[in-house]
Amino acid sequence: METIVKDMQGIPLNHYLLLSSVIFSIGVIGVLTRRNVIIIMMSIELMLNAVNLLLAAFSVYHGDASGQVFVFFVMALAAAEVAVGLAIIVMVYRNTRSIDINSLNKLKW
Amino acid sequence: MSLFYFVAFLSIFFSLMVIITKNPVHSVLYLVITFFTFTVHYVLLNAQFLAVVNFIVYMGAIMVLFLFVLMLLNLNKETEPMKSVLIKVIGAVAGMCLLVTVAGSIRAMEVSDPLILKNPDIGLVSSLGKVLFNEFLLPFEISSLLLLTAMVGAVLLAKKEQKSI
Amino acid sequence: MEAIFIIEKLVLIVVVFVLTLVIAMYSTLAERKVAGFMQDRKGPDRAGPFGILQPLADGGKFFFKEEIIPAGAHKGLFIAGPTIAIITACISSAVIPWGQSLQIGGRTVELQVADVNVGVLYIFGVIALGVYGIMLGGWASNNKFSLMGAIRAASQSISYEVAMGLSIIALLMVTQTLSLKEIVAQQEGFVNWNIWVQPLGFIIFMTCAFAECNRVPFDLPECETELVGGYHTEYSSMKLGLYMFSEYINMFVSSAVMSTLYFGGYNFPFMYDLGLSQNWITVIGVLVFFLKIFAFIFFFMWIRWTLPRFRYDQLMNLGWKILIPLAIANIVLTGVITLIKDTYW
User: Fold this and answer.
1) Nearest by CB to C117, which of B68, B71, B124?
2) Domain range holding B68?
3) Could you please report the per-residue DSSP string of C290-335?
4) Helices (H) and strands (E) in chain A, counts
């Protein structure tokens, strides 16, 4: 375990920031380019996870455990979001027989 | 040190595969692998409890739920709705713009100090528990309320309507 | 990280791996022998004395069968399914402490592959991963019945993991640690076993372990009468063998986990009163641990030949309406008792 931890030391915080922002942007691109509702939700999960990683890196950087505790709250939120979101998707599929996000344009003016 | 860059490359590669692949089931599997690389990142940060919770919650529960719904609706490549190429290009460009903006602001901030583990016990269960139940007790209780609400909502949505009455 | 340490761990890993495979192999024979005993017949007795060579004969048969990958199947995932199933089954035994330490030539050798300080959660996570093997195999077969089996496996696994996690929480409130090594070390002797303080938690955990291993009465993913075969309908040859094998390995590992968490692991009564040296205590401890594991494996088989399979709604009712409320009540009860004990004792 010690060798692994030593291995990680010395990586600039910048690189963690960059990695997280790249993955966050990939999530954003996923939301913008796909029409499948489930893939869109998965992209949102990707964005949440990018933020989680950054929070954990910050917590190690500052030597403060609050950052990691925040990650737990994000995970609880993600779990709640997925449970309700997937239930809504299943309902939509039952009514429209499709999971295309464009089939939900009934309220569009 | 090079291990971090290798795992970072894998995370970016697999998260790109998530949004590129046509088949939704493949997307879910690539996302599972992406989350696995995140678990490795947490282990590298010596956040062991976080790593194992990430493993259980994301890979063990959330992604199984996604896969379950995909299989239940029996979706595959043929039924996959696709946006036109123009919208895809515009979306990709917009995402890239966001990335450039964020990366530029990171450069402007100049926080390039190396990460040094000041307190190796930070990721252990006991220290996390102390912080969670002392400083964050109210948010903890509220998040339990959130989960209860989500549970009620999910049950209500998934329930078939009664025909009688 | 000196070389001898790595060699020591490698030897331990190989020994554990071989033991796991041999025990899983002979569990197949034991299952049929137990079935024979329960139904008043002999069981397999042709290959070798008392049918001792039967598992080898079965293995040989599996290798020489024709490999069939259905035309409509998704080839990559079809192969990945059994692979994931067997890998997750094998790596879950990494954190189990098989015995105390041995003294060999001045060195102390721990009989545990890795002492992770979140050991309980590691096992829980790997078990949760095991369902991917079944789901991918069932989906990639491109067969309605396989898909039904896969969907059943997923919903069963998710439902029973909740109750399993809650029953473990009550146990962790008593032990106050997540490291399996410390949990075993706390249960020294006989009166300190966790089963005496967590009987309800043990029953819930055991029921969920049956469900996670897809054993009768929870073997709905492979229900022959309703689903032709289940998630492995389209599999043949050694791929089917790997699915079967991973089921037996899971049974072995969950028996080991149950005896570690609740039945004192390698501890046995009067272990320090007999005047034995440390090495002898360790050796006897390992034997006692395996005795406990075999007792649990026998119990698994006993249940299989005693109870019929649940109906699907009964399975869900048992999981959500009985086990989860019971597990939550167990947590509350444990908390109240701990509080009373801390305040008034």
Assistant:
1) B124
2) 2-158
3) HHHHHHHHHHHHHHHTTSPPPPHHHHHHIIIIIIHHHHHHHHHHHH
4) 4, 0
CATH no. of A2-98:
1.10.287.3510
* Mutation choice for A interface testing from B6, B17, B44, B125 by most A CBs within 10 A: B44
CA-closest candidate to residue C168, choices C194, C131, C137: C194
State pLDDT tens for residues B94-124: 888 988 888 888 888 766 676 666 666 777 7
CATH number of the domain where residue B8 is located:
1.20.120.1200
Q: Structural domain boundaries of chain A? A: 2-98
Q: Of A13, A57, A65, which has the smallest distance from its Cβ to B122's Cβ? A: A65
Are the Cβ atoms of A21 and B139 closer than 8 angstroms?
no
In whole angstroms, give the CA distance from residue C14 to residue C29.
23
Of C118, C139, C158, the CB nearest to B48: C118
| pLDDT value of residue B35 | 92
CA distance C291 to chain B (A): 31
Examine residue B164 and state whether it is found in any structural domain, yes or no.
no
Supply the pLDDT for residue A50.
92
Q: How far apart are CA B124 and CA B50, in angstroms?
A: 9
In a domain, B163, yes or no: no
Instruction: Identify whether B80 is part of a domain.
Output: yes
In chain C, which residue's Cα lies nearest the Cα of B56? C125
Contact list in C for residue B72 (CB cut-off 8 A) is: 151
Percentage above 70 pLDDT, chain C: 97
Q: Is the pLDDT of residue C104 over 80?
A: no
- Number of domains observed in the structure of chain B: 1
Q: Please give, rounded to a whole number of angstroms, the shortest distance from the CA of C341 to a CA of chain B.
A: 21
